[in-house]
Amino acid sequence: MAEWETSLDFGKPRWETFAFSESVTNPELNGRRVAEVASERNVDPFGLILDVALDEPGLAMLDLYRQGRLKLDELITTRYTLGDVNQGYQDMRDGRNIRGVIVFD
């Protein structure tokens, strides 16, 4: 395992370090920590970020994706776990994979 993988809790965001900034439609969140707001609302921090983002102007494509009207998942050729990232790079170099993504579960 690479040193950066052991020195960080890789793949697990530290939500207490993230804060909202410059929200047009939710100015009461500006400067507040994601973890704090998620805890108050009893919701998942990532889901909270998506919900807030969908309220912001200019994010119509994200809204279309969540509605199932923008088909992005079908464009993915292969999904890799973080442990398989080296295989993903090799597959890309060998032409076996064009649009691979790393899944953080």
Brief overview:
The protein has helices at about 5, 35-40, 45-55, 60-65, 85-95; strands spanning about 80, 100-105.
Q: Helicity level, as a percent range? A: 25-40%
SSE pattern: HHHHEHE
Strand content: 5-15%
The first-to-last residue Cα distance is 18 Å
Q: What number of domains?
A: 2
What number is the mean pLDDT? Answer: 81
- Total strand segments: 2
Number of DSSP helical runs: 5
Low-confidence parts? 1-8
Radius of gyration: 17 Å
Describe the strand arrangement of the main beta sheet, using strand numbers. Answer: 1-2
Principal-axis shape:
extended
Biggest sheet descriptor:
2 strands, parallel
Structural class: mainly alpha
Describe the structure.
- The chain has 105 residues and is mainly alpha-helical.
- The protein has 2 domains: 1-70, no CATH class; 73-105, no CATH class.
- It contains 5 helices and 2 strands; from the N terminus they run H-H-H-H-E-H-E.
- The chain has helices at 3-7, 34-41, 45-55, 60-66, 85-93; strands at residues 78-81, 100-103.
- A two-stranded parallel ribbon has the order 1-2.
- Strand 1 (78-81), helix 5 (85-93) and strand 2 (100-103) form a beta-alpha-beta unit.
- It is extended.
- The relative contact order is 0.11.
Key features of this structure:
single chain; 105 residues; mainly alpha; 2 strands; 38% helix
Layout of strands and helices, then pairs:
Elements: H1 3-7, H2 34-41, H3 45-55, H4 60-66, E1 78-81, H5 85-93, E2 100-103
Parallel strand pairs: 1-2
